[in-house]
Design goal:
62 residues; mainly alpha; 71% helix; 6% strand; elongated; transmembrane helix; membrane; transmembrane
Length: 62
């Protein structure tokens, strides 16, 4: 069960980080319907990083 949550968090973290990267590169244009500035894209990047690290640690310790 722990590995399943770890895999879910890892995938979710990767998707969120990719979204943050695309939002950063769009330079203020709407991304998936949301207008996110370059500095605001830092928040999803940090959240995605936390999910990714948590997921990988859950998989490796599981």
């Amino acid at each position: 069960m722990k590995r399943a949550f770890g895999a879910f968090f890892t995938i979710l973290g990767t998707v969120i980080i990719l979204f943050a990267c695309v939002a950063f590169l769009n330079d203020g244009k709407p991304t998936l319907g949301w207008k996110i500035s370059q500095w605001e894209s830092l928040v999803p990047f940090l959240v995605g990083t936390v999910f990714l690290i948590t997921g990988v640690s859950m998989i490796s310790k599981g």
